[in-house]
Amino acid sequence: MTSIATTPVNTSHEAARVRSRQLEAELRQDPGRFRVLTGDRPTGPLHVGHLFGTLANRVRLQNLGVEVMVLIADYQTITDRESPASLPADVLGLIADYLAVGIDPDRATIFAHSQVEQLNQLMLPFLSLVSVAEVARNPTVKDEVASAGQAAMSALMFTYPVHQAADILFCHANLVPVGSDQLPHIELTRTIARRFNDRYSPGHRHFPEPEGLLSQAPLILGMDGGKMSKSRGNAIALAASEDETARLIRRAKTDGDREISYEPARRPEVSNLVLLAALCLQRSPEDVAAEVGGGGAGGLKRVLTDALNERLRPLRKRRRELADDPAYLGSVLRAGTERAREIAEATLGDVRELMHNTY
Predict the structure, then answer these.
(1) DSSP bridge pairs for 35
(2) What is the distance in angstroms between the CA of the first residue and the CA of the last residue of the chain?
(3) Which site among 26, 52, 206, 359 is 20 to 30 Å from 81 CA-CA?
(4) What is the tens place of the pLDDT at every residue in 296-353?
(5) What phi and psi values does residue 237 have, to the nearest 5 degrees?
(6) Average pLDDT over residues 143-164
(7) Residues of the domain holding 19
């Protein structure tokens, strides 16, 4: 696989947006030049925010012909919580979600963090390439420090940005779909790749300097108007029943204006429901709002319930079939993990050779 050009990345949102448009054109022209790394923490079922925010984009990239590596980041679950007894079922549930939305295990590699020892071993040399101050400046680490109060932050959480760099670089990924808040992670990964190359492989650029592909997916809020999140209880899971979906939508926060309009800045909660219906119906939000018109929040919620259940019906049917076959889901994970191990073993072997650690 040929690496893409290492255009210097500015972490400003506008510069990243411009570069992302260029990358989209390059993806369409020559998708085989790219290897994408993406993934999720197995902390519960995926929801409609994931579907429109990340999952649909992974399927799109896969169908373009891009090589997609999908990481189940089970080690990241213990950065801020204990490893629960439900983790094996959560991992299989995540795989069921992936396959149900259209990720094809014959074209994408699905693997688990904890099962690829060689990947995690790369974190040690990578830690030697960054300072404590550089890691501490990472927004994820800063947010954790700020929110921890008097509680001590785990060393694993502190080193999380370097672990994420190992996730990306072990497979020589050169493209990572991200939100704008994750651009500093990409910049730190690029710094690690560049410093490794300068120190240990000056005559040959061993690691690519990956670029962030900013998502063009709209932000889907939860039914309470806040960020849709598995942990906040405001999300509609992909695996939810149609009755449960209807119940959650009936509880969704709106406002007192009976005339429905699409005005995200002035009416964020109503506009979120309009947008979600529009995405399901493949229509513009303005058209959906005009159709509901004076039907008020009740009319809007009925339109959204019907549209979302119709959109998810085949996905849910497929997911139920997959969930009934855990042996198959396990085989998908084992095959993907074996593929990831082969890549990681080759990368670790090269790193040892370059660092003179072969005895």
Answers:
(1) 67
(2) 30
(3) 52
(4) 999 999 999 999 999 999 999 999 999 999 999 999 999 999 999 999 999 999 999 9
(5) -70, 150
(6) 77
(7) 13-217+327-354
Query: To the nearest 10°, the Cα dihedral for 78, 45, 213, 17?
Result: -110
Q: Per-residue pLDDT for 7 more than 50?
A: no
135 and 273 in a single domain? The answer is no
Res 216: pLDDT: 75
**Mean pLDDT (whole number) for 211-236:** 82
Q: In this structure, what token pair is assigned to residue 157?
A: 């959480």
Which residues does residue 214 pair with via DSSP β-bridges, in sequence order? 178
As a whole number of angstroms, the distance between CA 312 and CA 51 comes to 10
Cα distances (angstroms) measured from residue 264 to each of 225, 275, 289, 342: 11, 9, 12, 47
pLDDT of residue 145: 67
In this prediction, residues 212-239 reach a mean pLDDT of: 83
Residue 284 binned pLDDT confidence (cut-offs 50, 70, 90): very high
Candidates 107, 151, 98; CA nearest to 328 is: 98
In terms of Cα–Cα distance, which of 183, 213, 210 is closest to 197?
Answer: 210
Sign, CA dihedral 165-171-172-176, equals: negative
Residue pointed to by tokens 């730190």: 188
- Domain for residue 241, yes or no? yes
Count of the separate structural domains present in the chain? 2
Across 53-81, average pLDDT: 90
Q: Go through 199-215 and write b for each residue having 16 or more CB atoms within 10 A of its CB, e for each that does not.
A: ebbeeeebbbbbbbbbb
CA distance 35 to 52: 21
pLDDT tens digits, one per residue of 111-127: 999 999 999 999 999 99
Read off the tokens for 110. Answer: 């699905």
Cβ pair 252, 223 in contact under 8 A:
yes
User: Is 270:302 a contact under the CB 8 Å cutoff?
Assistant: no
Identify whether residues 44 and 174 lie together within a single domain: yes
Q: Which two tokens stand for residue 199?
A: 């120190």
φ/ψ (deg, to 5) at 112: -115, 140
Single-letter amino acid code for the residue at 246: A
Q: Residue 350 to residues 344, 345, 346: CA-CA distances in angstroms?
A: 10, 9, 6
Q: How far apart (Å, rounded) are the C-alpha atoms in residues 281 and 20?
A: 27
Examine residue 180 and state whether it is found in any structural domain, yes or no: yes
